[in-house]
Amino acid sequence: MAKATNSPLSQKELAYLGEDLHVEGTVRCTNRMVINGSVEGSVQGKAEVTVGRQGVVQGSIDCSQAVISGKVLGNLTVRNRLEISGGGRVKGEINVQPGQMIIREGAVLEGRCVALPPQSAAPQAKLALPESSSSAS
Fold first, then answer.
1. By C-alpha distance, which of 59, 60, 52 is closest to 33?
2. What is residue 30's predicted lDDT score, i.e. its pLDDT?
């Protein structure tokens, strides 16, 4: 059996919740997660969380990036980019960085959007300006 070496993601880098699976409680994932089943509870992802066309999340999602093609009934907190695809439905509060939300034609959004405070990649150093010691001559 040949091993695919050109695959962009290995199986260890992707968590997949299939259409026939139902999870109750908190789901946590460090790597990318795809949800095509149903989750009743919260989803916490350090990377991208994708809710597929068949996916349903009844609870909150907190992640770095999200693509919603299924249904989310709860609050979303996305620190980077959020995309709600044409068939996606979100009912709840969305917390996202300004300018980082894409809502495709056909998507349904019921709720409100709140802009998160801007993130800085690295703290900027304050410039120390010399005190002006102007002496009248």
1. 52
2. 93
Contact 84, 65 (CB under 8 A): no
Q: What is the DSSP letter of 117?
A: P
d(CA 76, CA 96): 8
Around 126, how many Cα atoms within 13 Å sit in the side-chain half-sphere? 3
**Burial environment of residue 24 by CB neighbours within 10 A (0 to 12, 13 to 18, 19 or more):** exposed
Q: Which amino acid is at 120?
A: S
- Reported as a single tens digit per residue, the pLDDT across 77-110 is 999 999 999 999 999 999 999 999 999 999 999 9
Distance between CA 117 and CA 16 in Å, rounded? 31
Given a cut of 80, is residue 12 above it in pLDDT? no
| Residue spans of alpha helices (H) in 1-133 | none
Its sign, for the CA torsion 27, 31, 35, 36, is: negative
Q: How far apart are CA 20 and CA 120, in angstroms?
A: 40
Closest CA to 68 of 35, 31, 105, 23: 35
Element (H, E) at 95: strand 94-96
